[in-house]
DNA sequence: TCAAATAAGATGTTATTGCAACTATTATTT
DNA sequence: AAATAATAGTTGCAATAACATCTTATTTGA
């Protein structure tokens, strides 16, 4: 009874947070290794893929879509631009916006990045059925929504 | 057909990686805010809790248990020691090992950290039943195991 | 119309994290 | 027993990411 601070295993390890962070860190390492040949880091590929999906797009829109801070977005885009994968163009209608496009080089690298991400995805979801995977995504989506809501409440 | 690089929404957004990283980043923010009063950052609390669970423990054991690089562990422990929550003691049987103990201050803060983590956990798993949560943990566990195996293969 | 407010981005700083390379200590091999 | 291996931990460096603050451009309101 005097050991009120002693913890059960449940309390320490069995919460999604621990798994999420371990998975995140390990995936970062895997993805970095996969994309190293293209000089694309784990902090940039999401932006490259999002631009490939919707072109042109602004940094603001990217930040909101990916739920990433706008300063992080700015720096990631700067790297992608420095590598020659992305091109910036001021929006003629509103000069505050930078419209982002893939360059020729960017269009060439996107399928390779997509394949690399596919490899990582299939490695990591081995042993999980399609039904289970859908379920996993659904639950992760709920967790993420809870977190985003939390953020709105703070504003 | 010339647009072989154009992506479907599935390909870009519907993979666990995106959710994992977004959840990870947002949880880091939430936890940092919750633990700010105790001068404990999002990079330290896991170690504090793991030491509370098993005392004494070495940095090596912490790194393996938490799947975190030993240099990260070293730095986190250094911070916890600087804040006065953790005490280091060379293992008399093998001076390479540092045995880690909670200090009095550490024992006092652990329940508060636990409560804070509990708050974060219940906020983020809102709308998820116990059965679904168990399922989520199970699936995350599989993903993490796949990633750890990947690591072993590289050795 | 012109000042104030708002919006998009950029920059500087800080925290978390991992790799490479290093020190110190213990174990192994010859 | 001395030389070599292996192990635990530390340090320096670089990448990711967020917050605070600043700049520039647009919109709003008086």
TrEMBL record, chains A, B:
Residues 13-145 form the HTH marR-type domain. Keywords: DNA-binding, Transcription, Transcription regulation. This is MarR family transcriptional regulator. Gene3D superfamilies: Winged helix-like DNA-binding domain superfamily/Winged helix DNA-binding domain. GO terms for molecular function: DNA binding; DNA-binding transcription factor activity. InterPro entries: HTH_MarR-typ, WH-like_DNA-bd_sf, WH_DNA-bd_sf. It holds the Pfam family MarR_2.
